[in-house]
Amino acid sequence: MLKQHRFTRLGPCTLVLCVASSSFALGPKENANSLDRWLETRVPTGFRGQVLLEHNGVVALDRAYGVADEASGAPASTETLYYIGSLAKMFTSAVVLQLEAEGKLKLSGKLGRYLDNVPKDKAKITIKHLLSHTSGAVSNHPDPFSKLDREAFVEWFLATPPDHEPGEQHQYSNVGYSLLAAIIERADGGSFQDSVRRRVFEPAGMKNTFFLDEIGPHVERVAVGSGSQVAKYKLDGRPESYGGSWLRIGPGGIVSTARDLLKWEQALRDKTVLNAKQYRRATKPYKPNQPWGLGWRLSRTTRSTPLHYHDGGLPGFNALFARYPKENAVIIILCNRDEAAGSVGKRISRDFFRE
After folding, report:
1. Is the pTM of the predicted complex or chain greater than 0.70?
2. How many CA atoms lie within 13 A of 165 on its CB side?
3. Which of 74-78, 98-102, 226-230, 346-350 is predicted with the least confidence, judged by mean pLDDT?
4. How far apart are CA 351 and CA 91, in angstroms?
5. Lowest-confidence pick of 15-19, 301-305, 309-313
6. How far apart are the C-alpha atoms of 42 and 251, rounded to whole Å?
7. Phi/psi class of residue 159: alpha, beta or left (left: φ > 0; alpha: ψ in -120 to 50)?
């Protein structure tokens, strides 16, 4: 059994340099050109993935670097599919907020309204607690690669003691988002995957974003992850081998491209998936001065403008989606080497907005 852990993420260092971002000096295109040249120098030391930078509807950088598969040497392209990890939580949150608007659930609703046989120690958990990582649910299953189906996952969750009382403190929990996926199925009818496709991917035009159980026909386009975490947990780095478990449903379990994630950004700007009120709710701190909303991480620039983002990871992969709504800018980084994205994310977050 693997020890409970949180997989490699871009981490708080990325947040610090995003906060330090200032206004464009040379202009986004010139800054992006400089970053492109720098990224080329990082490929020989192991960087691989896609980087997309966009500002005011103009794409300043859209490139793939390095290889999609270290073993074969197959080059990465802008059509390569990458595992995006916890970026999927943004989509889960969006579906919940849509269902609330339709009266199919309430953020204040407690688990007993959506699940059977909820024990006393979890009776006070609400949908909002799950969305904001304040439910008390443990962070991960003891074996994060266990092949649990929906029923087995819910049974395990209900039998597992919480780490703290709901609302008492913030504790990042992938388990809470897997539970949200089960609740969405009860509230919306049909599968969680169908709800996300119909409510997020299709209206946003995201035709190159797939759940792990859908990537068979596209497997030749899927990047293979590599790095120390892959070796540590004796994995093969292939996203399709991470599927087949409810533990990947809700908090992750999705492959995409930077270009498709730009369509998600455009859908947010156009209010195609979430209206203005719903987006404000998603990106409002769950408590004053907290850096977490509902499915989003929150920060501010040195200009006191908002930064809404999420990072994600699994052995072999790292991802970052960072949007600056006041500046109409977005940074998207997808990597298939688990040590590579952190330093690259810090540099890009700083230099795209270089003074």
Report:
1. yes
2. 1
3. 346-350
4. 28
5. 15-19
6. 30
7. alpha
Alpha-carbon distances, residue 167 vs 70, 100, 170, 306 (angstroms) = 44, 20, 8, 25
Coil vs helix vs strand at 146: coil
What is the Cα–Cα distance from 66 to 323, expressed in whole angstroms?
25
Give the CATH architecture of domain 1-355: 3-Layer(aba) Sandwich (3.40)
| 3 state SS of 55 | strand
Give CA–CA dist 225/100, Å, rounded.
37
Q: How far apart are CA 172 and CA 326, in angstroms?
A: 27
**Whether the Cβ atoms of residue 55 and residue 327 lie closer than 8 Å to each other:** yes
Task: Give the confidence band of 345 by pLDDT, cuts at 50, 70, 90.
Answer: confident
Burial class (CB in 10 A: 0-12, 13-18, 19+), 161: exposed
The pLDDT tens digits for 10-51 are 333 343 334 444 455 547 889 999 999 999 999 998 899 999
Where along the chain do its domains lie?
Answer: 1-355
Distance, in Å, from the CA atom of 41 to the CA atom of 323, rounded to the nearest integer, reads 26
Token pair listed for 124: 């006070």
Q: What is the mean pLDDT of the chain?
A: 91
